[in-house]
Design a protein that fits this description.
With about 425 residues, the chain is an alpha/beta fold. Helices cover about 40% and strands about 20% of the residues. It is built from 14 helices and 16 strands. α3 runs antiparallel to α7 and α8 crosses α9. The radius of gyration is 23 Å and the shape is globular. The relative contact order is 0.14. The mean pLDDT is about 95.
């Protein structure tokens, strides 16, 4: 049986929820200028606090190494000057984006004389549960703040010192801008029971966004009593079509797999059309092996490159998050689409092709949150999509899909503008 959370933790979480709900009301009426001022002040505070952030991060890294975290997790956990600068730049980009709150879309006059439209409004209070990456603390706070939402952030215990240090910069920026510091609250507890409590805070939390491994997301889905915005896996594919430009294919495949391994938009399965495979597959294999990638191939791929390790059924649905890649030779576009439909996770897929008709079919028929033509899957990212940053990636089909930025953190309500009309 799952242990019951203690009363003290329940009281703490309830207080956070009450404070967040009150802060959400203040943020909903905050001006764009005030929100932007807070974002810019937070960005400056992060860069000014670089020594303190790096010192806090080193405590977490030391703990992670002692706990035996693997290289991919340590990479996600690591802060350095470039990543701190990227966090600050992301906040500045969010400040430069249009404020979605209050915008009225599709205002139409009706025969009765009223005008009817839909206004963008904040979701309210967003609970965000994440692992390892401390940059999520700044990204999530910035996006929630600009979209008028209060948030409660629960990072992984492995990053607690770094997250709290970033949280202090956020609080300082909010206070300077005259906004409630409780608009962004970073949980100080590392008690795992807090995750279940946060996911069940009906009346205080409007939506939960889990970011992390499959185990975390499944646990949140199991415990949640409020809506969850999530993706479980990032089993991303690149399909190299018949007649594809070989140099383009080599660049895209290498980048999609080796740019970073421990991220959800890295390619995990390579599909190569049978017509291109004899000439191209050995070149792709050689490129990947130069970067230390272990390759697991289907029987047809192993006939072309004899020393490939054999792939089994589990490889086609594996999210390795490591220098391992599954490789399959397919008869063409139909078989590639069928493979993605069977084994994919609806995250991100890309086709490398010169054929516009096949590119159009791929875009229309592949049912994933991001579908690309002649581009690396690594572009499936809020920053690269021009969102400033992202709260996460959703593979759900309702409300928001793909990288979730400002608009994905709002809803719409109907508004009616009249001048005394009554219904007859």
């Amino acid at each position: 049986m799952k242990p019951e959370p203690d009363v003290e933790l329940e009281v703490y979480m309830r207080e956070l929820g009450q404070q967040a709900r009150q802060a959400a009301r203040a943020l909903a009426r905050a001006s764009t200028a005030a929100k932007n001022a807070a974002l810019l002040t937070i960005a400056d505070a992060l860069q000014q606090a670089q020594p303190a952030l790096l010192a806090a991060n080193e405590k977490d890294l030391a703990g992670g190494r002692a706990a035996g975290l693997d290289a991919a997790l340590l990479d996600r956990l690591t802060l350095n000057p470039a990543r701190i600068a990227a966090m600050a730049d992301g906040l500045r980009q969010i400040a430069a984006l249009p404020d979605p709150v209050g915008a009225i879309d599709d205002l139409r006059a009706r025969p009765s004389g009223i005008r009817v439209g839909r206004m963008r409004v904040p979701l309210g209070v967003i609970g965000i549960i994440y692992e390892s990456r401390p940059n999520v603390t700044a990204d999530a706070a910035g996006l929630c703040l600009k979209s008028g939402n209060a948030c409660i952030l629960r990072g992984g215990s492995e990053a607690v010192h770094t997250n709290l240090a970033i949280g202090a910069c956020i609080a300082a920026g909010l206070e300077t801008a005259g906004l409630p510091v409780t608009a962004v609250q970073v949980l100080e507890t590392t008690d795992r029971a807090a995750v279940g409590l946060l996911a069940g805070m009906v009346g205080f939390v409007d939506i939960i966004v889990p970011r992390g491994g499959k185990g975390l997301i499944e646990a949140v889905m199991r415990d949640a009593r409020v809506p969850v915005l999530k993706h479980l896996d990032g089993v991303c594919h690149v399909y190299v079509d018949d007649g594809a430009d070989p140099d383009m294919a080599r660049r895209i495949v290498l980048n999609a797999k080796t740019h970073r391994y421990g991220v959800c938009n890295a390619m995990e399965t390579l599909l190569v059309a049978a017509g291109e495979a004899p000439a191209l597959l050995p070149l792709l294999v050689a490129d990947l092996r130069q970067h230390g990638v272990e390759l697991r191939g289907c029987p047809r791929a192993r006939q072309l490159v004899a020393d490939l390790q054999p792939a089994d059924e589990t490889d086609w649905s594996a999210e390795y998050l490591a220098p391992i890649l599954a490789v399959r030779v397919v008869d063409g576009l139909d078989e590639a689409i069928d493979h993605i439909a069977r084994y994919g996770s609806a995250h991100t897929e890309s086709i490398v092709t010169r054929d516009l008709a096949r590119a159009d079919r791929f875009l229309r028929e592949v049912d994933s949150a991001s579908v690309m033509v002649n581009a690396s899957t690594r572009f499936a990212d809020g920053f690269e999509y021009g969102l400033g940053a992202e709260i996460g990636i959703s593979t759900d089909k309702l409300h928001a899909r793909g990288p979730v930025g400002l608009e994905g953190l709002t809803s719409q309500k109907w508004v009616v503008l009249g001048s005394g009309e009554v219904r007859s």
